Amino acid sequence: MKITAVECVVLDAEYPYAIIHTDAGITGFGECFRRAPYVSKAAIETVFTPLIVGKDPFDTDAIWDAMFRAGAVAGPPGALLTAASGVDIALWDIKGKALGVPLYKLLGGKIRDRIPVYASSLKRDLSPGDEAQRVAEFRDLGFSAYKMHSAVPGRIDDPADQTIATVTAIRKLVGDDMEVLVDVNGAYSVHNAIEVGKALQDLGVFHFEEPVHVRDLKGLAEVADALDIPIAAGENAYTRWDFEQLLSVGRPDIVQPDVVKAGGITEFQRIASVVSTHGRPMTIHNTQPYGSTAAHVHLIAGRTDFPYAQEYNIEHVGIRDAGSILKVPYAVKDGFIPVPEGPGLGLEYDIEVMRQRDRKA
């Protein structure tokens, strides 16, 4: 079997997908991270396609290495690896389809049929009372945990931050019925992160995510050492080498790889091996409900080092909520997402609908 063509569609001007065709009539679908979608599209069409057309899609290690070498001279890993992630996921989708087995069988099997997920809110404009009410609504839908994105993005220690007030309001309304996770996307100085973190641990927050700037690994370690609350980080690390540096210098308690950012399934497995040597538990970073979610679910279905509920975006997502790109629904029920049993990723994409929703830059 050989790869015959590669296309990249950008759905609703936001969600890039790599679609890989073969001479066996098997087509693989792989989602890229949604930021800078046209950078991913350009990389796939101009840098990666010439490398992979004519190759055997089963040669995922060799293809990944070729993409990484090409990316190393074409731009920073973050820009190119998001594109390589979609290509790699599509190749694994092809492998599963060719063998007639779900992806998890190629990754070591599964020990569970469904994965618990937490409700990840991306809103930053809710009052403490309104966010508390939202937490109660998702508790009633069967979710066991809720992540709030707080602080003021792009600013350090902004006085408009309502993180503590919001968590206090949540606890007042729902008590301990829901785990609460707090992500501030690096919006605190070290000393303020420690001060806020002490308040959050008194409020029983489950994890405190990216408390300081993503490149301030020494500061991250200072915060982690000063607090009992688990510190989470990793969504802005890309390769296994980045994660080794994160773990050795930053020392977070919980590590958060993202398959659509860090090089796809091939590199995700290597990253997980690095993290496991440090004895750290993992929880995925995931804001995309279909290709990204399914790939993550297959990757962790058979692992014991992803012990917690995993991230699931509860905001409006056009490719899910404004006319699905799937022929068969793939959705959360009672706070769990199922492990797909179809071949490959187990998702049935409607390629014609995807092409119709491809938006040019």
Structure commentary:
The mean pLDDT is 96. The longest helix is centred in the N-terminal third of the chain and has 23 residues. The strands form two sheets. Strands 4, 5, 6, 7, 8, 9, 10 and 11 form an eight-stranded mixed beta sheet that branches. This protein folds into two domains: 106 residues, Enolase-like, domain 1; 234 residues, Enolase-like C-terminal domain (TIM Barrel), CATH 3.20.20. The protein is an alpha/beta fold. A hairpin with a 4-residue loop joins β2 and β3. The chain contains 13 helices and eleven strands. It is 41% helix and 15% strand.
CATH class of the largest domain: Alpha Beta
Low-confidence stretches: none
Largest sheet: 8 strands, mixed
Number of helices: 13
Please, how many domains?
A: 2
Q: Which helices and strands, and how do they pair?
A:
Blueprint: E1 3-11, E2 15-22, E3 27-31, H1 37-52, H2 60-72, H3 77-99, H4 103-106, E4 114-120, H5 128-140, E5 145-149, H6 163-174, E6 179-183, H7 190-202, E7 207-209, H8 217-226, E8 231-233, H9 240-250, E9 254-255, H10 264-277, H11 291-300, E10 310-313, H12 318-321, E11 336-338, H13 351-356
Parallel strand pairs: 4-5, 4-10, 5-6, 6-7, 7-8, 8-9
Antiparallel strand pairs: 1-2, 2-3, 4-11
